[in-house]
Amino acid sequence: MQIGIDRLGMYSPHFFVDLKDLAEARGVDPNKFIIGIGQSEQAVAPSSEDVVTMGANAAAEFIDDIDTSKVGLVILGTETGIDASKSGAVIIQRLLGLPEWVRTYEIKQACYGGTAGLMTARDYVAAHPDKTALVIAADIARYGLNSGGEVTQGAGAVAMLISANPAIMTINDDSVFMSRDIMDFWRPVYTDLALAKGKYSTEQYIKFFDDVWARYQQQTGLTLDDFAAVNFHLPYTKMGLKAFWTALPEVSEDKQTALLDAYQESTVYSRRIGNIYTGSLYLGLVSLLENDGHVQAGDRLGMFSYGSGAVGEFFSGELQEGFARFLHADAHREYLDSRQRLSVAEYERVFNNKVPYSADDYSADPQYLSGRYVLTGVENQERQYEERPE
Predict the structure, then answer these.
(1) pTM of the predicted model, to two decimals?
(2) Do 198 and 284 belong to one domain?
(3) Do 118 and 23 belong to one domain?
(4) Using CB atoms within 10 A as the burial measure, which of 3, 32, 159, 200 is most buried?
(5) 203 and 306 belong to one structural domain
(6) Active-site hit among 49, 233, 265, 313
(7) pLDDT tens-digit profile of 293-331?
């Protein structure tokens, strides 16, 4: 039985800061951000956006086109949870109008949470082939204003419906994964700002890729020649390239060129949205499928997932006949082009205007409400969500 991704949706806040503007405000050569890091724009999440609203908005792209009575599992992969006990998945279930006879929960392992959810959903469908599973990878990456990681912030979500006989891509049963207890990146419970050892984290990312890729080749007998493209977890678009360069010498120059061309297409959306942690690998997949005119049915795609702390996994998928009919390329491009560009000063105001780490009531600024689902505020320590007219 083939199992994989039947539907794909994505969402990112309606506001962004141009990284040329940010570089100039920080007294940095813009090319350091645009070329050196590989980022052009960065999504900015107002306080009316969290992983619940973004995840629900991503799933809303296809929720009205599927049989929701078949959904038996909802998983939210995130490292930007809204509560230390209650999962955001159960709120997403309610907002989307899904049946109550659904298992819902949240998974955390840094940027690996989306892949953990995907693989769990695959196993669920294997045991329940008449059911589907909704997996949402959503995050808001925050390092702080004027911090070393400021240029690698971002916000967004990717939603995936997992089913038997999927319309978009099968998930092959060929995963290689590994875990090591390291301190390259973490976020203590008392803050929404991440702590990172930048150089060390990059080294570990590359090391994990090299190790799982070598073992994957040993176990499957496959090489880069067997792949039409390889997608990477993208904290910033140059990160994946640093790992990819270690494997590319294995193939001919013509194949290297083809793979690098595909890689660039997989980074189009990330370059404009920024880091979305658990969703970054899958944002790259959406970008590849919607921007690369060369990938076609039957192509094998590689997927490298990494979550600091750390877990790495490499697996593959195969594109299905007619997959392009279930994408939203035009709508995504139009949406990204229609976003509101913030000045650096306004970006800083929005960044600092956040739901407080306290028991105080809070109201979101109404001028920044956007999307079908929004967080209007907090009353008596309960988050208030609302569905807005489309």
Answers:
(1) 0.97
(2) yes
(3) yes
(4) 159
(5) yes
(6) 233
(7) 899 999 999 999 999 999 999 999 999 999 999 999 999
